[in-house]
Amino acid sequence: MFEWDSVSTCSFFFFDCLINYNRFSEGMDSIMKDLNSPHSMGTTIIGVTYDGGVILGADSRTSTGLYVANRASDKITQLTDNVYLCRSGSAADSQLVSDYVRHFLHQHTIQLGQPATVKVAANLIRLLSYNNKNMLQAGLIVGGWDKYEGGKIYGVPLGGTIVEQPFAIGGSGSTYLYGFFDQEWKNGMTKDEAEKLVVKAVSLAIARDGASGGVVRTVIINSEGVTRNFYPGDTLPLWHEELPPQNSLLDILSSSSSSAEPMVS
Amino acid sequence: MMKLLTSQTWVLASKRCRFLLLSSSPRQLRYLPLLIRFLLADLLQIGHSVNNRSCTCKFITFTYLKMPSDTMDVPKTGFSFDLCRRNDMLAKKGLKSPSYLKTGTTIVGLIFENGVILGADTRATEGPIVADKNCEKIHYMAPNIYCCGAGTAADTEAVTDNISSQLKLHRYHTGRESRVVTALTLLKSHLFRYQGHVSAALVLGGVDVTGPHLHTIYPHGSTDTLPYATMGSGSLAAMAIFESEYREGLTRDEGVNLVTKAICSGIFNDLGSGSNVDVCVIEKGKKEYLRNHLTPNPRTYVSSRGYTFSKKAEVLLTKITPQKELVEVVEVGGDAMEE
User: Which domain of life is it from (chain B) (predicted)?
Assistant: First the structure.
């Protein structure tokens, strides 16, 4: 049941939302201001453990102000062979943090002589996030598999806390998923169940959050290796009051001249 | 700075070097001008190449000690925001700060079957005025990598020049052709370090051993890798064209036509873009820089009276310099130095 009381105490929910909506002004300036806004990923990112590994999921929309700068971005970046990172918040900050940590982990792997553990990767992310908390705006979810602990998910939100969780959600779209996960989450799911859950959750968030959209990307990490999957918008289930995608006149006209694919958001 | 320890002993000390003057008799005050000279030189920071000179004479001893770390100041890196408060104060008093030259722009890039095509318009604006009707927005980075720049013209020029030099040094160092991801990493680290204050939005494209690549780089340092990209104030107009008509595996001519169309859409529908279309086609092993590939805005009005001075103007000197002088470089045979 939705309670008005709970809304006023929900200040922390907006930690990953776009906080750089500029007030519109006349003329060209509004467009320029929009396009010069920091590249932000109002996003939905999810990390889920299952029996044998982890599954990371994310949408693919990167926005600058109210313009979608990249509608097919990849927010799940690789840190090592067995550890991946879901990025949200400022695109520049999260990209640079992931680059630095990839470098440090590479060095660590060489020095250690064996693959780095997920815990180490998450703690490196946490150190960078915490020590630069005044300047960075990046909400991150670290997930991977190692031979000591198995599949693990660590959430490193804004501010640099590190929290080991059986599942983690982040980004502006995650606000719409807290209730969903409270109901649907089960411990010890199989790989297929878990992946279906992740895709369902991201598509729900895309339906309700304006800052999330595009396609759903998932990465499955387990003892056998890493599998990347891609779910285009038209394969996702439709939710309440969503219209089915239709071929526009543009597609019909252009299909006579060239082999254009129908455009789906 | 001058302290009287006893009636006859003076100690002079300064921030950068220590002067010690011990005088045993008032008669030695005639040495004071010499010391004042040293002190003034230090205060005015005139260069002194004196190191630990010590001069002893019968009645006075003074030692000039130079602190090694103090005088050689390493300039602080990064931007200096010291004058911001003064600028704010002046702005409040009504002083209009000079506006900077922006390239309110349309820049695009796309990947076709054999490589990358970059396109740009040629208008540079300074507020509402067109400062340059035919500027070059496609910058050279490496023989196989070019970069279109939108945002503050000075920033895009400086950043691309800087990284182009770094790439050349890297080429000498490694002995290999530059890769697009190298340029990408150099640009992104530079822009991130300046936290968005270097207002340069770039479309970087090139072909290297790993294939054709196209990246967009935003002023805060984030990057995207895309098959087709647009940036600048006219990016929405150009992206509309790309989203309707782009497909994989375009031929060179189709690609150039699509890029031209997208830039024209920016030129005619965005106030910050205009004039002509520049195109650059990069393929494996070769590149073609088509400067002013299309000029859809020619100057059509020519005054019938001709462009002469009014009657009141007195012509003192008429000097006509031909616009283009082609200089031919002739290599006199032989590289060896001859006595």
Answer: Eukaryota
Q: What is the pLDDT of residues A114-157, one digit of tens each?
A: 999 999 999 999 999 999 999 999 999 999 999 999 999 999 99
CB contact under 8 A, B218 and A39: yes
Which ranges of B30-137 does DSSP label H, i.e. alpha helix? 32-43, 68-71, 84-93
Chain B residues near residue A67 by CB distance under 8 angstroms: 235-236
Using the Cβ of A39 and the Cβ atoms of chain B, whether some distance falls under 8 Å is answered with: yes
Strand-pair partners of B228: B110
CB-facing half-sphere around the CA of B227: CA atoms within 13 A: 14
Distance from CA of B301 to the nearest CA of A (A): 28
Query: Tokens 């198995």 correspond to what residue?
Result: A150
Four-CA torsion A169, A170, A173, A179, nearest 10 degrees: 30
- CA distance to A195, B13, B25, B57, B65, per residue, from B10 (Å): 84, 10, 11, 16, 16
Question: What count of other Cβ atoms lies within 10 Å of the Cβ of residue A234?
Answer: 12
Q: Is-above-0.80 flag for pTM?
A: no
Looking at the predicted complex, does its ipTM rise above 0.90?
Answer: no
Among residues B2, B44, B48, B49, which one has the least CA distance to residue B21? B2
